[in-house]
Design goal:
This protein is of the alpha+beta class. About 50% of the residues lie in helices and about 10% in strands. The chain has helices at about 15-25, 40-45, 70-80, 90-105, 110-115, 130-150, 160-175, 180-190, 195-205, and strands at about 5-10, 30-35, 60, 65. Strands 2-1-3-4 form a 4-stranded mixed sheet, covered by helices on one side. The radius of gyration is 17 Å and the shape is globular.
Length: about 220
């Protein structure tokens, strides 16, 4: 059986690749990484939010090809159910899918105003009203999950697809020094200190490629 392949782009700039990679790691999938350079025009368009479709990450496994991040998560949950990528309880599972879908399709102001950039820290960054509205909604989602499921992750004791979907938000909050309530700040610390996140961040900081377009103040 051929080894699975996960195609990704920049670890420093790509939020979607981080999500797919975390899901694959947490599922326990044995996979090879195939890196597409951020200099590739189509990849650059995706990273700059100028593309109508997102084609990385793409997972190839058992002759199945999946290029949507949520679909990757659903597939991995079916293949590796013991990994717990989705909650066992049906109501919690529906809730998890709902907040993942909201992250998948929403928060455009946050994405454009606070792009992922793990190499950078921007103290004093001004968050304007549209992005702040997105931040407030995300913090409300997190608080509701902590209250309902008890933490330390969004749906209990171990990370799920939901934590993978919101992990890039944690990196954004740290890059742009966003002030957070205590529960949100502690959650970001937990996510950022996961061994898989530490591995990703170290690789991101070692990347030679830079995109000056994403280092501008918005």
């Amino acid at each position: 059986m051929a080894k699975a392949v996960l195609t990704i782009s920049s670890k420093n700039y790509s939020s979607w690749c981080l999500r797919g990679w975390l899901m694959a790691k947490w599922a326990g999938l044995d996979f090879d990484e195939q890196i597409v350079s951020a200099d590739d025009p189509s990849v650059r368009a995706e990273l700059l939010l100028q593309s109508s479709s997102i084609l990385v990450p793409t997972l190839v496994h058992d002759d199945v090809t999946i290029w949507d991040t949520l679909a990757i998560g659903e597939y991995l949950n079916e293949k590796f159910p013991k990994a717990g990528l989705l909650p066992k309880d049906a109501a919690a599972r529906a809730h998890c899918r709902a907040i993942c879908g909201e992250m998948h399709s929403g928060f455009g102001a946050l994405r454009s105003a606070l792009p992922v950039n793990l190499k950078s820290t921007k103290p004093g960054f001004v968050v304007w009203s549209a992005a702040q509205t997105d931040i407030d909604r995300i913090l409300k989602i997190w608080a509701a999950c902590f209250e309902r499921y008890g933490g330390p992750f969004l749906f209990g004791e171990k990370p799920t697809i939901a934590d993978a979907m919101y992990a890039p938000v944690c990196t954004r909050f740290r890059t742009y020094c966003v002030e957070l309530p205590a529960d949100g700040d502690a959650y970001c610390d937990r996510v950022m200190n996961l061994p898989t996140m530490v591995e990703w961040i170290e690789a991101a900081k070692a990347e030679p490629e830079d995109m000056p377009e994403l280092d501008a103040e918005f």
